[in-house]
Amino acid sequence: MRDLILYALLAFTIFLSDTSRFLQEFPTTRQETPHTLTPDEEDKLLRDVMYFRALIEQEQNEPGHFFNLGLASLALGRTNTAEAAFKVVIEMRPADFEAHLNLGLVYARIEDYAQAAEAFNQCVAIDSSRADAFYNLGQALRYQDKWVDSIKALSKATSLEPQNALFHYGQGYVEENLGADADALISYSNAVAIDPAYIEAQQAVGRILFRQQKFDKAKEVYRKVLQLDPQSVHARAQIGKALLSEGKPDSAIYAYENALRVDGASVEALSGLGLATLRAGRSRDALAIYEKATAADPDAPSLYYNIGMAHANLEQHEEALRAFTKAIELNPRYPEPYLALGNALTALGRQEQAREALDTFSRLHSYQQELTLAERYVSLNPHVAEMRYNLANALAGMGRFEDAVEEYEIAISLLPGFAQAYNNLGVVNVQLGRFEEAGTAYRQAMRLDSTFVDPYTNLAWLHANHGEDYEQALYLARKAVSINPSVVSYETLAIVRNARREYAESDRAMRRAMELEPDSARLIQLWERLKADRSDE
Questions:
Q1: Is the pLDDT of residue 19 over 60?
Q2: How many Å apart are CA 219 and CA 342, to the nearest integer?
Q3: Which of 9, 42, 267, 430 lies in the 20 to 30 Å Cα band around 126?
Q4: Phi, psi of 37 (to 5 degrees)
Q5: CB 486 within 8 Å of CB 516
Q6: Counting beta carbons within 10 angstroms of the beta carbon of residue 425, is it exposed (0 to 12), middle (13 to 18) or buried (19 or more)?
Q7: pTM here?
Q8: CB 417 within 8 A of CB 433
Q9: Residue 21: its pLDDT value, please?
Q10: For the segment 468-512, what is each residue's pLDDT rounded down to a tens digit?
Q11: Dist CA 335 CA 311 (whole Å)
């Protein structure tokens, strides 16, 4: 049957003849930027495909012909043919390491990373001494955001092949994304020690040194990058950023201007130059620079915030107000523009609006402080589930729900029985409109801890508002009350009863909630809304 499938795929191949063989081994790493074939290379590969097709017709039971056909097809980007060919090889030789490896690369090429990981796991089972199997497995897991499992595979790859700079860099990348900057710095430094010309690794070292506020060392690294690539705008801009962080705006201006001599449209360099010019007290000049930056990147909130600060320095409060408002429109969770907006409104005598802006700043700034603290603890304890959980909570408070999902999932991978993480994962999935995923997370939290009331109330609310499974919603709400007769469980029961048009029972549940929290403005508003919903029917 597999042969028939393969022949059906080959029916679309251009018929050419050639006697050469394609024996080049396909790279064992996923290429971020695949090599673009020249016309001559493509023509040769097409002829190779047809050559191996002819061999298969003559000798259908020879797996080597299918394997070489798979290699040639993969190089051509004909992933369907390559997949079928490698599957035939595996059917004939189930323990063929290279066939499983290349099948995994096929899946990676089409971005089916789950199947790629499965193929690479087969490689590991066949030969656990091969570093390339663990490296590719780690990469496939990384692309599925399975960071903890990814680091385990990549660490194994580097232990098996410690002189491979690429493996150390891959490990560092995952460690950095896990917030383990100290570990990532070691991995990136290992990559540089093995291959001093590895520009990406050099830049990664500089990036982490900058975050660690080791500005002199960061500048030294970026100067090495410039020796390797004198046209690197990013390296020049990062030197400017380090100088600015050291409180040297004039030196930073010189560095940013050097970057702009290489690429006059670089948003990174224009933005940095504008900030350095602003810090140097030249607000009018900064405005002219930011005008160019926003023309290149009109959706960057930080640019509008700095434009507002320049106008504020010039006491142009109406213009500052417009810039701060634009920054907030682009990122409503960005704290600093609210403070500056409040100050601008105060200067314009609009006290009530200023108070609202400053209150919002205080709330977001508090979340930002929690986030900063949580990130610091994660950097010190990257493999502790509770630290990840706290970071996820802080991200959720800032409205960064996608990032929060990732951190909750990391916490769960570190501690599979973490019921609270599953519950909060459900909450942020609701915020993202992913109701099915939210329900799955709530149910898992309930399975892990049947006395944990939050997932019962959350899932009851979800059924009542988005699933319209009122029977299940009522069961869950009543169960929540039996576990913990709290304000939240009674108000959830009231919401469910109201959705079921059981208005007397809904009011009874609201009264119980009010008894537990008398004169609560929030409960009064909820009750009024429930009553209003009845009148709308």
A1: no
A2: 37
A3: 9
A4: -70, 140
A5: yes
A6: buried
A7: 0.77
A8: no
A9: 28
A10: 788 998 999 999 999 999 999 999 998 999 888 898 998 998 899
A11: 19
